[in-house]
Amino acid sequence: MADPVKVGPWGAAGQGRDINVGSRPQRLNTITIGWEPSWGYGNGRIIGISFVYVDQNDKEITVGPWGKIDREHSRAIQIDQDEKLYVVSGTFNDAGVTSLMLKTNKTEHGPFGHAAGSAFSVPLKQAQDDGEVVGEVVAFFCRSNDTLQALGVYVLGENGLPVMIGPWGGIVNQRISTPVQLKSVTVYSTQRIDGFSFTYVDQNGDDIPVGTWGTTNGQKNTFSLNEGEYVKDMTGTFDLDGVTSLKFTTNREHVHGLYGRLSGTDFRVPLPDNAVVGNDGNHNGGVLGFFGGSGGNSLVALGVFVGVAPAPKP
After folding, report:
1. Are 17 and 142 in contact, with CB atoms under 8 Å apart?
2. Which of 9, 303, 35 is nearest to 153 (CA)?
3. pLDDT at residue 304, rounded to an integer
4. Domain of life of the organism in this record (predicted)?
5. Residue 94 pLDDT exceeds 80
């Protein structure tokens, strides 16, 4: 039975809400989204969410509502058994989640609410050969008071493999074998990310250095991860030409970056503590490796592998 990973949340402060401890979501059945009535054009912000998921025992679990659901200003979405939710995106500000949009391998739902504030997106990588989804969103967690303040997702990879999130930017043309641990990262930057390389540990326990995606022009910055250390948060920006900035934060609160220059659209991959819900308890989640796109003189696109982080050193 595969273990889901928590990613997020995005939004404002509020009381934390989550599924039952020990429950391991495997797929979504239904999602209901509520929004605030608006006297102007369109809808107001998102004020509530509820959902039904199937757990590791093949039992349907009903969750929520978190926030408020008004029957006249809500939408119930049915997810078929052969359907997978692989993109959750939206916007948020200091008041909470302002808009949401969902995309499955069959259709799109939304946008709901009214886009305002900062954007967020959780695009899960799809297979290139036959279009099947490599990962899917199987549940949610959030912060809520009387409205929906922030939203995060549980993602599940196929066959227990790390989940591929992204890419942000352009076309992916650089891939690696399945990683289990990230060892080091090197970034070349000027006014954008000119080049990117890293070393990871593969499933055989071998250190695999990855050559530079892009170019070695610009300022070079390298950071290594110590035993038990892992990247728990990655942020950046991108535009039509590729990735313009990157910043990494580890579980030891070491911050690397900002590299490049903030320009274009924001993206962020925050991983909370106890992000991986396993059969033997919860584990922290971490960035294990990357996939991306290499242009002639810059990093065109970047995505991450997310999975169980290495155990901290006692």
Report:
1. yes
2. 9
3. 95
4. Eukaryota
5. yes
Mean pLDDT along residues 250-266:
95
What share of the chain in percent tops pLDDT 70? Answer: 91
Query: Which residues, other chains included, contact 221 with Cβ-Cβ below 8 Å and sequence gap of 6+?
Result: 186, 187, 188, 189, 256, 257, 259
What is the rounded average pLDDT for all residues in the chain? 89
CA 95 to chain centre: 22
User: Can you name the residues that pair with 210 across neighbouring β-strands?
Assistant: 198
Question: Tokens standing for 5?
Answer: 């990973």
- Residue 301 tokens read as 């696109």
Q: Please check the confidence at residue 297 and state whether its pLDDT lies above 70.
A: yes
Q: How far from 131 is each of 79, 107, 127, 177, 283, CA to CA, in Å? A: 18, 14, 5, 19, 31
Please state, in angstroms and rounded to a whole number, the distance separating the CA atoms of residues 10 and 290: 22
Distance of CA 259 to the CA centre of its chain: 21
- Cα torsion for 163, 169, 173, 179, to the nearest 10°? -30
Class of 163-308 in CATH: mainly beta
Domain 5-160 has what CATH class?
Answer: mainly beta
CB 293 within 8 A of CB 213: yes
Report d(CA 124, CA 156) in Å as an integer.
10
133 has pLDDT over 70: no
- The answer to whether 33 touches 175, Cβ cutoff 8 Å, is no
SS3 160: helix
Give the domain ranges of the chain.
5-160, 163-308
Q: How far is CA 177 from CA 130, 162, 206, in A?
A: 19, 11, 11
